[in-house]
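User: Sequence for PAS domain-containing protein below. Tokens please.
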Amino acid sequence: MGVEQDEHEGEFERCEKRLKCFGGEELSEDERGGKLPLQSGDFFFYPMVPSSIVVSDALEPDFPIIYVNTVFEMFTGYRAHEVLGRNCRFLQYRDPHAQRRHPLVDPVVVSEIRRCLEEGIGFQGELLNFRKDGTPLVNRLRLAPIHGDDGTITHVIGIQVFSEAKTDLNSVSYPVFKESCQQQFDQTGYYSPKSGQLQHSRHEEICGILQLSDEVLAQNILSRLTPRDVASIGSVCRRICQLTKNEHLRKMVCQNAWGREVTGALELMTKKKLGWGRLARELTTLEAVCWKKLTVGGAVEPSRCNFSACAAGNRLVLFGGEGVNMQPMDDTFVLNLDAANPEWRRVSVKSSPPGRWGHTLSCLNGSWLVVFGGYGRQGLLNDVFVLDLDAKQPTWKEVSGGTPPLPRSWHSSCTVEGSKLVVSGGCTDAGVLLRTHICWISP
Ligand SMILES: Cc1cc2nc3c(=O)[nH]c(=O)nc-3n(C[C@H](O)[C@H](O)[C@H](O)COP(=O)(O)O)c2cc1C
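Assistant: Structure tokens for PAS domain-containing protein:
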């Protein structure tokens, strides 16, 4: 697949002619000086310019380039022999000798490219690139994986549409790369504090991770954490706190956690003055949640108290309770909050647990409901019943076997790991408080 320079010299010439034609400008051989025909400023906005194409080997580490076409060479100023065998990220460096990505290249897009390549899916997006001479370019990039006969990805094709970047490269203020407070790097590239309390010997006192540059910390470590962890790690020290407040970093973290689509939708909210940091915090801590009165249809009848209710996804389920004259109830009601007009409905079940109050109702695996204990007609109970809300004909089934918890009421319970019911506290008839008990349920 690799194409050497001289092999496509003819194609190069043809392409050059077409481009000259679209540009309406002839460059003399002298003007070209034997170099690539397009200089910065000459090549933007030709609607019919053929696509720049790069092919990388997906079976080799780091996707080395095995082919670039002449259009790529013309737009980027790099000759094929200079780029074959390299990863295409050099286009994110402002000059051929730069050691790292330019600060204005959006790290969110880069991490999205990385994710798509890791997951073997296509990518489409826009990012800042640079010609060999340092001219900024907007690259509308598409990446498409190519599968071999056995389904493995053997190559990735990149198609670039380059256009002029109206970017002021002198006003770099991208904070992830702008080194944070009081930081400088010594000749070995290690972090050394200019001032402040960290005046001790570097080797003894400074935590290894803090010797990394802001860029490495932000892009290689913080950006891979969950939104909640980013919020927590900010309390480690001032420097990390400052980095975690960076909007680009926050956006990247949100994108990793919730995907590109959701992040895109959330981005609209950040434009309404809610920064990424605040948004992520509200989403992970629910601190912005507030009560809203909901009026629903239907009714739980007959009326009762001491019932138990729990959520099964967006459905609220209620079981049993104490009716008039201390009547133990055994009916099941559901309120589907996803419905256009939510209303309480009695679930028609084939059989029910004995009526009770002071019991607990918990949800298991999204649609299974578990009733435990409480007070029934015969006194305290320690039975366990399970019902699949999504079954065609929902039926309460008793779960037997193992050592059940002691009979009790006024306890609390929850389910963990999809198979365990944890029953805590509660009391006996004599008012004795009971201990926590875990029982395994295999519906
Ligand atoms: C076939 C192919 C073409 C690519 N073309 C470009 C490109 O034109 N510009 C660019 O900035 N990155 C391009 N990339 C993406 C980079 O090579 C690299 O995968 C990206 O920067 C993410 O990885 P990194 O975080 O390790 O740099 C291309 C990748 C592949 C596989």
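The pocket of flavin mononucleotide is lined by residues 54, 56, 63, 87-89, 91-92, 110, 113-114, 117, 127, 129, 139, 141, 143, 156-158, 160 (CB under 6 Å).
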